[in-house]
Design goal:
By secondary structure, the chain is α/β, with parallel strands linked by helices. It has 5 helices and 5 strands, in the order E-H-E-H-E-H-E-H-E-H. Helix 2 runs parallel beside helix 3. The protein is globular and about 35 Å long.
């Protein structure tokens, strides 16, 4: 693993504290030590990426997004992020309890990269994150670090 991956921030949008802790534990067990930013609502996540004072270029990150969120749901967050030039390329992993094929198709249609059903199968989850992290490290243009 090169240095590139260490700078990848993981942004988790999850309103259930129990699930959030579980996801964190799974990341640690997988040896993923990246910085983790946690938002409990979709509104906070949209604010962070697209609100006043949001950076023109978001930090290298990966978003773990729950669909069932208060106020602004995961679909809305996904739609907003994929509809904005600044965040269109940020990979999004949907982590949710719904395994309804229609919902899954809808998320892929909206631009999610991976759809994982909770309770998370740990190996599959760790693998998805590693793959996306690797992909990002390869895709991201080095800026003289």
């Amino acid at each position: 693993m090169g240095k590139a991956n260490d700078q990848l921030m993981i942004v988790m949008v999850e309103d259930d504290a129990g699930h959030a802790r579980l996801i964190q534990k799974n990341l640690q067990r997988a040896g993923i030590t990246n910085e983790l930013k946690h938002f409990e609502t979709g509104k906070q996540a949209i604010e962070f990426f697209l609100g006043e004072g949001a950076p023109q270029v978001p930090p290298p990150c990966l978003i773990l997004l729950d669909l069932n969120l208060p106020e602004v749901d995961g679909y809305e967050v996904l739609t907003r992020l994929k509809g904005d030039a600044r965040t269109r390329t940020v990979p999004v992993i949907i982590l949710t309890t719904t395994d309804n094929p229609r919902e899954i198709d809808r998320c892929y249609a909206l631009g999610c990269n991976v759809y994982i059903t909770k309770p998370v199968e740990y190996e599959k989850f760790a693998d998805s994150i590693r793959k996306l992290g690797l992909m990002l490290a390869v895709v991201r243009v080095p800026n003289g670090h």
